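User: Is it possible to get a 3D structure for a protein together with its bound compound? The compound here is adenosine-5'-triphosphate. I've pasted both below.
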Amino acid sequence: MPKQNQYLELENIAKSFGNFHALRDINLSIAEGEFVCFLGPSGCGKTTLLRIIAGLESQDQGRISQAGKNISWLPPIKRDYGIVFQSYALFPNLSIAENVAYGLVNRGQSRASTKARVEELLTLAGLPTSGNKFPSQLSGGQQQRIALARALATSPGLLLLDEPLSALDALERVRLRSEIRQLQQRLGVTTIMVTHDQEEALTMADRIVVMNQGEIEQIGTPQQVYLQPSSPFVASFVGKVNILRGTSLGDGRFRIGKLDFSCESRVDHVPAGGPVKVYLRPEDFVARDAENRTHNNAMAEVLKIEFLGAFSYLTVALEGMEQQPVLASMSLNLLKELRLKVGSKVLYGLLPERIRVYCDQDG
Ligand code: ATP
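Assistant: Yes, that's possible. Here is the predicted structure of the complex:
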């Protein structure tokens, strides 16, 4: 587990490009050893924030401190971090060993200690015998491992990763995800990774900072962000979600079409009669035994089955709200047990603790 000392603190960071507000009022504390992901759609400002932390971009206002030191206006060279970019950015005319040694040589380290450190880093990167090769002789994944080794060469206090996996093929991406995470945990280096890939953030981060239009929408563990999204934006950006239009009946009850439901986790209080948007994830629909029929249940007709291996997505029309078909997930085993196919009928229950209801601003 990460230690709880606050290592990096951002206070009231703001940045505009001309009239465009790229970042507004960013406040964030990152603990020593933490792995934090900045997650958000294209253009939300995550790379700009990372570049401000690195000193590659200057903030218009706000304060940054690292290890208790105010670094707000320090040039990049005076800051203590290693950085990895999406495009590997290795020097093509230098050997792999020379690439990794780059920062050490710049700091005037002796040849012997540089050689030993490079060997150590190449082993850490899983490429102990590649020192004499050149970047063009390595695969994308291998180049990114070397870029990581180069960023870690001087044992920086902070590791910054700007979409480091997005140029790789799917298999390499998944492999490198766990390699980076294991390495980060072993070294205990405080790390920030920019990504627009929710799966990457959910699997790798201690905490996720969800950003939208230059602002932080939510900061939380992957579970908090997924299970208790603070806004409709977070609920729909992280994970799949059904957004259903309904009406509040007051007291945590609401109606969609002709069906009445109750929920435990109301997010917005909407008075009876007010329009609501009900957010339900595919796994919040639980296929139930007809005998266990209580409240929050409805019969459904299967309209479509998308087979995805271990589980499937079923598009179903719940009786009473046929106008709004929903996506429900089901494990392969249950699908086989219930022998469901298109046109089958199945009883679904909704988990009251998982239903999230927001005021429908457009309703
Ligand atoms: P992406 O995943 O597409 O890189 P992002 O969340 O990292 O998105 P940023 O690169 O931080 O987004 O950019 C945020 C906004 O600021 C974008 O609208 C971008 O066009 C704008 N922007 C970034 N850098 C500059 C610049 N130097 N001059 C003008 N506008 C900029």
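Residues 17, 22, 40, 42-48, 196 surround adenosine-5'-triphosphate (CB under 6 Å). Residues 241-359 form a domain with the OB fold (Dihydrolipoamide Acetyltransferase, E2P) fold (CATH 2.40.50.100).
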